Amino acid sequence: MNQKEQWTNRLGFILAAAGSAIGLGAIWKFPYVAGTSGGGAFFLLFLLFTIVIGLPLLLAEFTIGRSTQKEAISAYKAIAPGTLWPWVGRLGVATSFILLSFYSVVGGWILIYLIRAFTGQLMGQPYEALFREVIGHPAGAVSAQFAFMLITSWVVARGVQNGIESANKYMMPTLFILFLVLMIRSLTLEGAMEGVAFFLLPDFSKLNAEAILYAMGQSFFSLSVGVSVMVTYSSYLAKNENLVRSAGSIVGLNLLVSLFAGLAIFPAVFSLGVEPTAGPGLLFIVLPSVFEQIPLGSLFLLIFLALFLFATLTSAFSLLEIIVASIAKGDEQKRKKLSWVIGFLIFLAGIPSALSYGLLADIQLFGKSIFDAADYLVSNILLPLGALLIAIFVPFKMKRAVLIEELQATTSIGKKMFLLWLMLLKYVAPIAIILVFLHMLGVF
Ligand code: PFF
């Protein structure tokens, strides 16, 4: 069955896809890794991988989704019937399920912080102990995760246009404005430049193999590629909309927000002489103590938490949507029910992650907590594997005429770029991803 619903226009699509891309990756993971892995050098590397591998993969997913107008599993079936390729879609659905199960745990923490910020129970606390308490309190963490999934299911149940598109239409512009306010505040603090230098001055001596691999993984995660989420989102795009320009806007917005995040966080951190500790605690422990020291700090902290929540939610919508769409297959009635049922199942699956800092703290999988093991499985194995398969699928399984038509590669520059794109997909992306896997297996 063909999809019935479509985005209202190209902007609706761009905002939703950028909403999927911009999330914990850009705001939570990127700043602390960049800060400790060579600053500007890491950023340059991330930029390079984003353009050379991330962008081509994003376009690859777009061509699969838009040409078939079908959700993640049926799209592969339509192009390569009777083969094993639909398993790439199934892999994406499974990856999304696992990813959302722990993504929603962090969403829950943000909700708790936001409620505390509103009720005045955040400022002035011993922040490290508070963070431990929030993530370690079993009932608190689980119910907050439940609330986060409730919001996500509610939006997805409302449909592509009325739910996902309209939520993104408000949340994404608000996110940008809030980020601008925050960044200006941060950059105008005394001594802010030290933070800018820490974040952006390239220190190539810190670029080891780990950092290089991390920059690549981050470029996939951050653009939501490898999961077929972008296949699903682009299947709702009208045929006459330009895919290359849309992809360019999405990549540009994602890079911009990664830059904003670093420029909002580090100048404040340095200006107030706080240690820019590495690790996920940066946002939850360091930032409140930084905001505490500036005038109207509680307001700025509230702004930060709100934008952080918006970014996380808009990514969560896309993760739930791919699963719901792949089962509902265009049936509106089914989709409503499925959004709630699958949202609930994801909540259940996420409970062990939510408890992994409290009740289940002693349980280790491959030497990691349950939360970290799930993150590792998705970010370092499933996502790159999906990306590898998509990079092979598009150039080898799709008809060249279809690709040319989808990308409107008709001018002479267009044709050259098209060939370059195919080369990047056929050779550069697979080789880079395989090198990462070999490194992980300890081959070099
Ligand atoms: N891009 C999101 C982030 O950076 O937080 C994470 C993500 C969402 C990855 C959706 C993959 C995906 F399909």
Automatic annotation (TrEMBL):
It is a multi-pass membrane protein. The keyword Membrane applies. The chain crosses the membrane at residues 12-34, 40-60, 91-115, 135-156, 176-200, 212-238, 250-274, 294-317, 338-357, 377-396, 417-441. PROSITE patterns: NA_NEUROTRAN_SYMP_1, NA_NEUROTRAN_SYMP_3. One of its GO terms (molecular function) is symporter activity. GO terms for cellular component: membrane. Coiled coil: none annotated. InterPro entries: Na/ntran_symport, SNS_sf, YocR/YhdH-like. CDD domains: SLC6sbd_Tyt1-Like. It is found in: Membrane. Keywords: Membrane, Symport, Transmembrane, Transmembrane helix, Transport. PANTHER family: TRANSPORTER. Belongs to the sodium:neurotransmitter symporter (SNF) (TC 2.A.22) family. This is Transporter. It comes from Brevibacillus invocatus.
